[in-house]
Each structure stands twice: as structure tokens, then as C-alpha cells.
Amino acid sequence: MPKGVTDLSVETYNIHMMIFWWCVAIGIAVFGVMIVSLFKHRKSKGVKPATFSHSTTAEVIWTAIPVVILMLIAIPVAETMVKLEDSRDPDISIVVTAYQWKWHYRYQDEGVAFFSSLARPSLEARRKQSGVDPFAVDNYLLDVDRPLVVPRDAKVRLLVTSNDVVHSWWVPDLAIKKDAVPGVINDTWFKAKEVGTYRGQCAELCGKDHGYMPIVVEVVEADAYQAWVNMRKESVPQVAGTTLAKEQQ
Amino acid sequence: MTTAVADAHDHHDDHGPAKGIGRWLFSTNHKDIGTMYLVFSLTMFFVGGLMAIVIRSELAIPGLQFVHPEFFNQMTTMHALIMVFGAVMPAFVGLANWMIPLMIGAPDMALPRMNNWSFWILPVAFGILLSTLLMPGGAPAGGWTMYPPLVLQTGDAFPFLIFSVHLMGISSIMGAINVIVTIINMRAPDMTLLKMPMFVWTWLITD
């Protein structure tokens, strides 16, 4: 699990590690007691078995301890989840629509929209008996023709939905895995703090090419982002009164 | 007169198992049915295991070597359904059939004829499920959880998938009823609930 490049991805990572260490501690405690008991109270030492069948004290203890541990886990988790769900006041809003088997991104205010599909080299190499060595392909199955481009330090809201079956938009470095459900718009957000290329995949079985619809997010500086938006606008033929031309890209 | 009495007295049937296939088809004996469950489970384990070999062979190195993605998804879906409903659950029920009557001092399961039905539904259900591999559109490939809308893209296999999974459900519900009724009603005198072995308790709770 990567620490990722957003504040919330770091928080998510820390929660994961906290719960992991709780599990380690519980494992050591439980198996420790069990091993010591088996060793110290074995029959060959002449230990007489206990005959009681009920102990209120023991029941209170084994109920109270898990309740306390669960509270210690639940409180920071709830705090982080509240932040994860708060997608208000974004700098950029992008509608992410899943298709069998590609992604479509529409920037709500910039007038930019495009499909993002598996990159050509991967597409050729992935065919059965293609004769192309996948190891020779850069970022095999993790590269797209047109990545999602966003500026650094901007709050990006994603409105995730689907055109056909359930998909899931998953980018580990952003700590986002959001289901794309037809007829439903799920929202989430991220604010990447580092410039870079972050890769992900569809995370909900969506048919035969489920493994061939990766996600690439390019985080760039604000001016580079603006230049990219202008470039995209120019490269798209403008048809008055319709966004259809843009979407057909 | 005396001969008649002696005749009646000597008129014992042979209590050995029935001969031939009938012994297994019509059995109400909990050990025979338990054995059939275990053999069926092992068979399905190998069938599901073959599919796992297809899956892992394809995944061994990047790129596609052996199968197409659509058949790969059929393998994962069928592997899961077969392992869950055809290998794991019948193995448990087979052990329950063998062990529970012995452990609680019962002569057989409470509902022996239903026991026979619970088992014999399974080969029919899995016959239907496996036959979908030969149907137009192939076997189910939307994952064993069968989520719509993806599962609606299954080809001709769709109604057969639904029917076979329902049959599996009917079989396991009948098996569960049998185990619960046996444990509640057929314990030997003085075998109270708290004296029951752990194995029997796990069955009473999980059923």
C-alpha cells in the first residue's frame, strides 16, 4: 500500500498501519496466552482441569477490551471518512464516466472532454500470441492514450458514474477507489501535493476487457495545466451549441 | 403350527446394503450419503482445480498465452461457484452426515429420505452448471457474486445459472434442516446440549 501523494492518502495509510499493528498485538496476546496455557498446564505435569463453566468477570473483560480497541480504531477512521466525503468547494470538477472498456472524462467548467483508452503499445502486446514481449512495453497495461491531467494543489472533485455495468475508478496513490454505478453519481475528491504520473485500474469486474482499461492521472504545475487546457480546446473542432463534438474525441 | 412360528421367527431379511446402483440412488443411510457427499466434493474439487490451473497458467507470465479474456472470466466465475457450492459445502455436509449421528448417539439422520434428496439434487445442479460451458455465449463470466448489470450480459447460460444456483440452495437448506432437526430431537438420553461435542455445536450454530 503506497503512502500516496495527498493528505488523505497519508492518513489512510497511517490508519491501515495502526490497524495492522493492533492485529499484530492481538495476535501475540491471544496466541501467547494460548501457548503458555498449553505448555504450563499440560496433563503430564499433573494439572487438574478446571471445572467451572461460567465466569461473569471473564465475560465482562472479554467484552470490554474489544469494545475499547474498536473505539480506538473507529474514532480516527470516522474522522478521516468525514474528510473523504467532503467534496464541497472544488477548484475543478470532472465527470468520470465508465464504459466497457474505457474511461471518459469531462471537465465541467473548462469545456474539455475525452475518452481515455488503453495505450496502443499495450493494446498490441496484449493480444493472444501477439509475438510482442510485454516486458518490452513500458507500463504494460498501465498506460493510456490520453491521461487525466490536473494541477498540483488543486481540489479536484470527481463525479463518478457508468454508462453500462459497474466499474470502479481506483488510483492507489490518490487513495481513491470509487465505484462507477450506472444511474448513480458517486462523488469523491483529491488534492495531489506532488507533480507526477499516477497509475490505476478498474477495480470491479466489468466484462472481458476489465483488465484493459487503466487509469493514468498526470499531476502538473498550474501553468502547465492551463496550457494543456488551451491546447485541448484548440485541438477540438468547435460546433456551436453542442458539446457532442468534444465528447466524440 | 410350530413350523409356522419357527418360519415367522426365521424370516429375517438380509440387512446388508442393497446391491448395485440402487444402494446409492435410494440410500437413506447417513454413512452412505455422507460418503457420496465426500466423493462428490472431491470430484468437484478436481474440476474446480482444473479451472484454477487454467487461470494460474494464463497469469504465470504477462500477456495472453492460452485463453482469451472472455474464457478466462468464465474460468474464474465457474471455479468460484464450483469450489464454494460444489467442493467446500458438500465436504462439510458429508462430514456432518458421517459424524453427527455417531457423536450424539442417533441411529441415523432425522429425515433420511430428505437426506437422500439433498444429496441427489447436487449432481443435477452441477450437471446443469457445467453444461453452460458448451452453450452459445459461454459459461457465466460475471463473477460468482452474479451482480447485475454485468451478469445480465451472460449468454444463453443465464437461466441455467439461476436454476442451478437455486437447486444448490435448496439442497443446502434441506441439509441444514436435517442437521438441526437431528441435533435437537435425536440426541441419546443424557446427551444434553452442553455435553455435545464442539463439532456438533458448530453445526447447530452455523446451520
Structural features:
heterodimer; A: 249 residues; alpha+beta; Helix Hairpins; 5 helices; 10 strands; 35% helix; 23% strand; disordered C terminus; B: 207 residues; mainly alpha; 0% strand; disordered N terminus
Question: How is this structure best described in words?
Answer:
The complex is a heterodimer of chains A (249) and B (207). With 249 residues, chain A is an alpha+beta fold. Chain A has 2 domains: 7-85, Orthogonal Bundle (Helix Hairpins), CATH 1.10.287; 92-247, Immunoglobulin-like. Chain A has 5 helices and 10 strands; from the N terminus they run H-H-E-E-E-H-E-E-E-E-E-E-E-H-H. In chain A, strands 3-2-1-5-8 form a 5-stranded mixed beta sheet. In chain A, strands 4-10-9-6-7 form a 5-stranded mixed beta sheet, covered by helices on one side. In chain A, strand 1 and strand 2 form a beta hairpin. Chain A is elongated and about 85 Å long. The model of chain A is unreliable at 239-249 (pLDDT under 50). Chain B has 207 residues and is mainly α. Chain B has one domain (27-206). In chain B, 66% of the residues lie in helices and 0% in strands. The A-B interface holds A 53, 125-130, 132-135, 140-141, 164-166, 182, 205-212 and B 61-65, 67-70, 73, 141-143, 147, 149-150, 153, 194.
